[in-house]
Amino acid sequence: MMNLPFFRPLNRPITNWRDQTIWIIGASSGIGAALAQALLQQGAQVILSARRLEQLQQVAADHPHADIVPFDVTDQNAWHHASQQLQTRHPSIDLVIFCAAKYQPERSWEVDANDAAATLKINVESVYHGLQAVLPQMLKRGSGGLAILASVAGYVGLPNASVYGPSKAALINLSELLYSDLHQKNINVYLVNPGFVRTELTDKNDFEMPALQTPEQAAEAILQGITHGDFEIHFPKRFTLGVKLLQMMPYRWRFALIRRFVVA
After folding, report:
1. How far is Cα 204 from Cα 106, in angstroms, rounded to an integer?
2. Which of 43, 51, 99, 249 could covalently link to 26 via disulfide, CB atoms 3.0 to 4.6 Å apart?
3. Residue among 209, 206, 201, 208 nearest 164 (CA)
4. Cβ–Cβ contacts within 10 Å for residue 115, how many?
5. What is the pLDDT of residues 207-237, one digit of tens each?
6. Span 158-170, average pLDDT
């Protein structure tokens, strides 16, 4: 039964990280840093990118399989230069993981248009810069993978995520269409939807975060999902499945539950 197409993994499972070259965007802290450390421990060649050089150096900790390429992910020219630089050192990048993000908890009446533009530039626009930089070589080679870190905040419209939530909803939509476009071209696409993870971003929250996880737990769940060949990797399921259920409800029920349990 497991050989039937319906039961096959949506992506090609990765069984040996030692054979992989991984480029992590947003590797200076949080989930990106935890992923970098976990992959380095498993013997992968890991390229770490973000703006903060000192923190990237701390994450790499002089590991022989780490390569640090700092740059501003919102700068399209910087993406081009970084990818050109890496082609000489790592001509075959197997997986690019997009982790860079900006978050500010705010209600709709608190949104500043300039701050919103800055958030969208990091959370969404930078991914398009990255796709333009890395996809041509993957398509030419006929292999590779893209992992996009979205969020369960993109499932439904929730208070306090007035810009962050829509940006993550955009990434969910983007990941789905990328899979449709690229699967037949032998390129894996992974959509990562975490629940609450203790990072610099969530430290801004002044409310209780259910099923809060550490970056290390998040990294473990992500790598497990990639190893299995999953398309959507969401965790912890005791929380994310509840949000998925909320997403499927009629709007009348959904709004009523949000007013009762979420809106302060």
Report:
1. 10
2. 99
3. 201
4. 14
5. 888 999 999 999 999 999 999 999 999 999 9
6. 95
Using one digit for the tens of pLDDT, what is the confidence trace for 66-78? 999 999 999 999 9
Secondary structure (3-state) at 188 = strand
Q: Decide if 146 contacts 139 (C-beta within 8 A).
A: no
pLDDT exceeds cutoff 80 at 262 = no
Whether residue 243 contacts residue 156, with contact meaning beta carbons closer than 8 Å, is answered with yes
Q: Which residues contact 173 (CB under 8 A, 6 or more apart)?
A: none
Cβ-contact 131, 177 below 8 angstroms: no
pTM of the model: 0.94
Q: Which long-range contacts (CB under 8 A, 24 or more apart) does 211-218 make?
A: 211/236, 211/238, 211/239, 214/34, 215/30, 215/31, 215/33, 215/34, 216/34, 216/38, 218/31, 218/34, 218/194
Q: Write the class of the CATH domain 16-261.
A: alpha beta
> Can you give the residue ranges of every domain in the chain?
16-261
Number of C-beta neighbours around residue 113 at 10 A? 8
Task: Name residues whose C-beta falls within 8 Å of residue 258's C-beta, 6 or more positions apart in sequence.
Answer: 156, 158, 159, 246
Instruction: Look at the alpha carbons of 215, 217, 222, 227 in this order and tell me if their dihedral is positive or negative.
Output: positive
| H/E run at residue 122 | none
Category of 261 on φ-ψ map: left (φ > 0), alpha (ψ -120 to 50) or beta: alpha
Q: Which residues of 150-169 are buried (b: 16+ CB within 10 A; e: fewer)?
A: bbbbbbbebbbbbbbbbbbb
Neighbours of 232 (CB within 10 A): 17
